[in-house]
Amino acid sequence: MFGCLVAGRLVQTDAVQVASDKFVFNLPDYEKVNHVVVFMLGTVPFPAGTGGAVHFSFPDPSGGGAVWQLLGFITNEKPSAIFKISGLKAGKGGENPFGIMASSSRLSSSVAQVGVSVEALDQLGQQIPVSSAAVSTVDSFLHFTQKMLDSLYNFASSFAVTQAQMTPNPSETFIPSSCVLKWYENFQRRMSQNPNFWKN
Q1: Distance between CA 185 and CA 188 in Å, rounded?
Q2: Hikeshi-like N-terminal domain: from which residue to which, for each copy (predicted)?
Q3: CA pseudo-torsion sign 118, 51, 3, 174
Q4: Which of 162, 77, 69 has its CA nearest to residue 114?
Q5: CA distance readout (Å), 166 to 101, 124, 157, 160, 177
Q6: What is the pLDDT of residues 80-138, one digit of tens each?
Q7: From CA 159, how far away is CA 180, in angstroms rounded?
Q8: Is 155 helix (H, G, I), strand (E, B) or coil?
Q9: How much of the chain is in helix, strand and coil states, percent to nearest 5?
Q10: Hey, which residues does 163 pair with through a beta bridge?
């Protein structure tokens, strides 16, 4: 139902369902992560009148219980959101809405957690996300986009084969890697000339 994306890493779609309406992703080496994107996979919509509250929890080395911070929301109308986690502070936040199964005390000190809690839309509207999680600048968005495109190109390139290595397969469509590289270089050039071109 949900996916989680960090620049430079493979997409995570293996959320652990800790309750009928609660899902948790583990985020290893969170210290190296600046932004995280949480999105719906498009396979299962939210039930009518509900959305997802997205939370973040630091590891709890003191053993005092996980502290969760509300990052924001996703809904059927807004099925993805990007959040800045590099500015969050450990130890500040609310109680664990995900139960004992999602306790970060069981995890390594370098593993944080991102959780999605399915809740009524009117309840979501009454909750206030931490302000430091908002990504509001174009520079941050473009920086994330560039890193995401780097990751996509590197991932796609790992499957590259020469024409001599190709095996005929009528069910596959092959795209020349030079075509993807040319598009990416053109994107970078346009972005450097006009950072707002993507709004057009």
Answers
A1: 5
A2: 6-133
A3: positive
A4: 69
A5: 47, 51, 15, 10, 14
A6: 999 988 877 766 666 677 765 555 445 567 788 999 999 999 999 888 888 766 655 45
A7: 13
A8: helix
A9: 30, 25, 45
A10: none
